[in-house]
Amino acid sequence: MKSILKKVAGLALVAGLVFGMFGCANGTTDSIIKTVETPVFSVASGAVTSGTSVTISCATEGAKIYYTTDGSEPTASSTEYTTAISITADVTIKAIAVKSGMNDSAVATASYNVIAPAPEGFVTVPGGKVTGAAYTDNYTGVFPAGRNVTLGSFYMGKYEVTQAQYKSVMEGQKVTVNGTEYTLADSPSYCVQGSTDYKIDVDKDHANHPVENVTWYDAVYYCNALSAKENLDPCYTITVTTVSSGHITAATVEYDKAKNGYRLPTEAEWEYAARGGDPTAADWNYTFSGANKADGTSYNASKNAGLDSVGWYCYNNISGTTGDTVVTNSADGCGTHEVGSKTNGANRLGIYDMSGNVWEWCYDRYGSTSSETVTDPAGASSGVYRVRRGGCWCYEAGRASVSNRGYVGPNGQYNYLGFRVCRNAN
Fold first, then answer.
1. Interatomic CA distance for residues 371 and 132, integer angstroms
2. Hey, CA dihedral for 69, 70, 73, 79, is it positive or negative?
3. Closest Cα partner for 250 from 241, 237, 260?
4. 327 or 40: whose pLDDT is higher?
5. pLDDT digits (tens, 9 = 90+) for 168-219
6. Pair 125, 153: CB distance under 8 Å
7. Is the CB of residue 225 less than 8 Å from the CB of residue 175?
8. What average pLDDT does this structure show over 43-47?
9. Number of helices and strands (H, E) in the chain?
10. Is the Cβ–Cβ distance between 289 and 355 less than 8 Å?
11. Which three-class secondary structure state does DSSP give residue 95?
């Protein structure tokens, strides 16, 4: 019996030692070794401009970060992170966080593709992926739930094409159709200095007002002419079949997105840029480009003071402030405004007038969207109408929403419809 008791006591002593090594008085396991939090990059993987500054942080206090830029796995012997990293070439950065007494963190990785700075008058729109969502407080747009879209990086015009820019490119442009030579209009706009019908800034030079009264065919022709002027490869192959009063009203157009010349944005590119180019940012869900709707209003309201800071529409076109007077296409006070004249009206990318002033042609044929995963979509494969986006000076506020979709025949000419151009960034 005594020997049995001794064995039991010995086992109890061993159990106590084990408990003391791996447990604590309250029965927890606080001595289990913890793992350092994974490092976080301040700039997500993707396209960046040269000189972009990237910082790396770790939520674990006192942890040191080590990183590599040659694709190798980082260790505590790698370069220690002490200051922001300037991205000047394509690179993949791998980082690990280390702290004495803790397990090393998981490896964090970020890859960056450097794109050239935007040309003068343009802004860089870094490409990205958009996971469609159900927008209950806005129009559906082209990023509905079930649709996943990947876009490459591109340069977008900071402003709508102006009357002066259009004239400088189109002056002297001629096309031949069935043996007959036609000179294309270089000053097509209705809203001009001295007009008796369009009285906004009537006594001032309208050189920097957006060009309007151009067909979709005129717009793509302008893109090709501008590309040729700057020794770039045209994106469109255009065979003109009808010219009327200096405007191209019928043509066959083939699009080669691989070319580096100027072009109309696709509808997906247009909406992506109008929303600010970052699906994780709050302003991605704003009603207007760079501004949200006013408190107490609906996204499709005719009158919305939220638009006053960024765009011109039918209830603010005279004074810039939403009032009770609606400006229609035939009323006093109608007409376009100088591009960028809403001085605080740029969105997060630095683009102006994507809500209001003039509607803007996009490349796409109009069509419904569907649940799909797609890269650089360019609209329906068939159809009569072309997309227009952004609202204008004589339409209600809801039409200026970043996700309101419109369409019109490609031969349409209106005093409220213009365009802006873009280019591939890579």
1. 9
2. negative
3. 241
4. 40
5. 999 999 999 999 999 999 999 999 999 888 888 888 999 999 999 999 999 9
6. yes
7. no
8. 85
9. 4, 23
10. yes
11. strand
